[in-house]
Amino acid sequence: MKERIRQDLLTLMQVPGLSGHEDRVRRSIRASLDDIGIASETDVLGNLVTTFEGTGPSVMLFTHMDQLGFVVRRIEADGLIRLERLGGVPERALAAQELLICVGEGRDVPGIIANKSHHATTPDEKYKVLPYAEVFVDAGFTARADVEAAGIRIGTPVVYAPRALAMGSDRICGTSVDDRAGCAALLEVARSLRRRKNGPPVHLAFTVQEEFNLRGAQPLAQQLQPDIAIQIDLMLASDTPDMAARGDMVLGGGPGMSLYSFHGRGTLNGVIPHPAMVRLIEEAAEAADLTLQRSAQGGVLTDLSYVQLVGKGVAAIDLGFPMRYSHSARELCDLNDLEGLTSLLTTALARIGPDFSLNRDEVT
């Protein structure tokens, strides 16, 4: 299992897929599902979903396949390119980063975020982080006409240059671990669901635009009307000196369960999980002999926040894997956590029978 997850993750991390431009990633995942023998469908927004029939409460199990990045905002007369941020891109991590300007398969253009020559910086500049609006990209062009001839226009998607690097025996570092790692885990869950003999109806989905507005999954949920929603995403590893006060989430320590998330800036949204789902996941972890890590974080938000409000309300829970260095060009995860997450999900789904109750008064 671990080796399949490793190969799926390394493959998906090499595929660019900015929010709203996920088509290459979706086609890669669809091809993997086809190889497994699983049919899938795509909606108008680009969400990819496959349904496994069953009995009992219906489950929407999903993860996002998009990544954060930029779009071209302006092309200067001298061929330099200005960017607009798309998603939570940290400005302090931008200087000298390598980028990929996504014109089309086989036609993408590499570029770099310029970093002023050290020999020319003043003392105060050496400690200054440039606002993204002042950043420019050098893609090797000398005139606007050359940029446009390469197919680059205002609105063209731009991502960190895709990289995937094995570190140690079981750690993977690179771009878009968030959330291609979740995609790799759900591909493994799909293999398990294809072999199962019984269980609840499961709509397994790879969703769009999470890094943009967190609502790409919402229309799919409105169509599916699930009783239960389980969302997969990163959880903040807190085992480095800069994160020690944020929690007890350890890389390599096992899958995680969120007990609280909230993002106050502009959204006033988050997730407090349904108690029946918390009990289910705790019991599944014990049954699978897995260490289950717990998370409660402010400043964090997933697309589950909107899926839980569909219809009459959905019994929701966020699960995930510890990850270091979120939203940078080099994120880091541990394959053992992804393997554990896959086992946790398959065990939990198998325990949702026709009599599985979502009545909050019956949860002790």
Task: Summarize the structure in words.
- The protein has about 375 residues and is α+β, with helices and mostly antiparallel strands.
- The protein folds into 2 domains: about 1-65 and about 175-360, Zn peptidases (Aminopeptidase, 3-Layer(aba) Sandwich); about 70-160, Elongation Factor Tu (Ef-tu), domain 3 (Beta Barrel).
- The protein is about 25% helix and about 25% strand.
- The protein contains 8 helices and 18 strands.
- Strand 1 and strand 2 (about 50) form a beta hairpin.
- Helix 1 (about 1-15) crosses helix 4 (about 175-195) and helix 6 (about 275-285) crosses helix 8.
- The longest helix is centred in the middle third of the chain and has 19 residues, at about 175-195.
- The model has no long low-confidence stretch (mean pLDDT about 95).
Please provide a brief summary of the model:
Helix content is about 25%, strand content about 25%. The protein has helices spanning about 1-15, 25-35, 145-150, 175-195, 220-225, 275-285, 305, 335-350; strands at about 40, 50, 60-65, 70-75, 80-85, 100, 110-115, 135-140, 155-160, 165, 170-175, 200-205, 230-235, 255-265, 270, 295-300, 315-325, 330-335.
